[in-house]
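We close this part of the discussion by returning to an individual protein. In the encoding step, the backbone of a single protein was reduced to a row of integers, each denoting a local shape. The sequence in question and its structure tokens are set out directly beneath this paragraph.
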Amino acid sequence: MSAENTNTAEQDAMAAEWAAALAESKSAEPASEIAAEQVAPASFANFTPTAGGGAGNDINMILDIPVQLSVELGRTRIPIKHILQLAQGSVVELDALAGEPMDVLVNGYLIAQGEVVVVNDKFGIRLTDIVTPSERMRRLSKG
């Protein structure tokens, strides 16, 4: 048997299986009749807070989860050919203006803005504006 005949025979067998499965599903009871018979109201257990509990304990469960906090000086878009030409001493112009507040991001989402400070010979940021929770939600829904 040639490869072409084998492929045709396999395709015919597969088509027959699909046709049988389709015929079987059409002969079964309609889903609406099955669903109507099996519907029952759900019951849920009442949850009570544990001793010394409350909403405070709920947030304590997530307080130790690490997140990525980053401060963004600015951004720019440049073609790859310019990236390949970069060398020590090259200057890349960013879209932020000198003296403009920097964005503070947590896991890539803006949460605040601030200004650069030096603390013990290390850079830091003094927060000058915190994004309100409602504004954060509005920005999340846009993205």
